[in-house]
Amino acid sequence: MELATINILYITGEPEVARQLETSLAAVRSATSSAAQYRVLHEPALSGVSRRLEQGGVEVILLDLALPSGDGDEALGRLRAEYPALPLVVVAPPGDEARATRAIQHGAHDYLPHGQLDGELIARVLRYALERHRLQEMLRQLSLTDDLTGTYNRRGFLTLAEHHVKLLPRTRGLLLVVARVEDLNLLGSGSDGRDRERLLLGAAEVLNATFRASDIIARVEDDEFAVLALDSSADVIEIFGPRLQQNVEARNAAAGGPKLTLTVGMLPAEPRQRISVHELLARAHRVRFEAARKRAF
Questions:
Q1: CA–CA separation, 54 and 139 (whole Å)
Q2: Which of 38, 87, 122, 256 could form a disulfide with 25 if both were Cys (CB 3.0 to 4.6 A apart)?
Q3: Residue ranges of E strands in 37-144
Q4: Strand 37-43's sheet: what is its strand order?
């Protein structure tokens, strides 16, 4: 049986090391018929990572903390914030166990010492990282998601948001969005109950279409959703606001039944800002309340 190829995005300033790694992994596969096939995709700097990941096909990220630009630790924070769905393993400078430990505390699945990237070791670490990530995702899906909409539930949102608020100083900022589905309480059981579900599902679809796959979308109350847009500066409000309105209007034009109406509050958090998730939510609710007094969309 032919085994699938696992694509590794290796972010390092040493292209020769990336080539050697692929050779070592190929040797492991040749020696062990049951070993997976690995393909190493080299990216020399963080600036090219988004473009490469948007092309798809990457199963795991390998990050060299000793990037020539010196921003390996910052790169880790940004990658975990923007691409939480991908397992990430770091390569730490020799003898720097403290740095490797910090990397794991900030979201890396495992680490490898620089200069010891032999095929068997990296294959084992990658295999364990992929399996650990798969199990984490399965547990998260079981306990942290909303049964109706498939978005995160309140517990899931708070769990993930607290993690990203801790990483706030390493990012460009965060944007918290709260969106209330209006008039939901007027719909009861029977056919009204089905309309109620359609509105909630419509709200979830609109939010998923508006925000990025890396953003955290959750149904945090019976009639309310929250979105945490990761690594986002305050000016993204000018992008997400009109896009959300357009998507609500498109949904209402295409769907039958009651029209979806959302009242929305958007609150940015700056990188140097010290604030808790609960305080962010409270402030965003105040912004939403003021917006509801003026208009809804």
A1: 26
A2: 38
A3: 37-43, 60-64, 88-92, 110-113
A4: 37-43, 5-11, 60-64, 88-92, 110-113
The b-or-e profile of 128-154 (16+ CB within 10 A means b, else e) is: ebbeebeeeeeeeeeebbbeebebbbe
pTM of the model: 0.55
Phi, psi of 274 (to 5 degrees): -100, 110
How many Cβ atoms sit within 10 Å of the Cβ of residue 231? 24
Q: Name the residue among 254, 234, 251 with its Cα closest to residue 243.
A: 251
Predicted local confidence at residue 2, as pLDDT: 46
Q: What is the mean pLDDT of each run of 10 residues along the chain (297 residues)?
A: 75 86 80 71 86 86 80 78 85 77 79 76 83 74 85 91 86 92 73 81 95 91 94 88 95 89 93 88 90 64
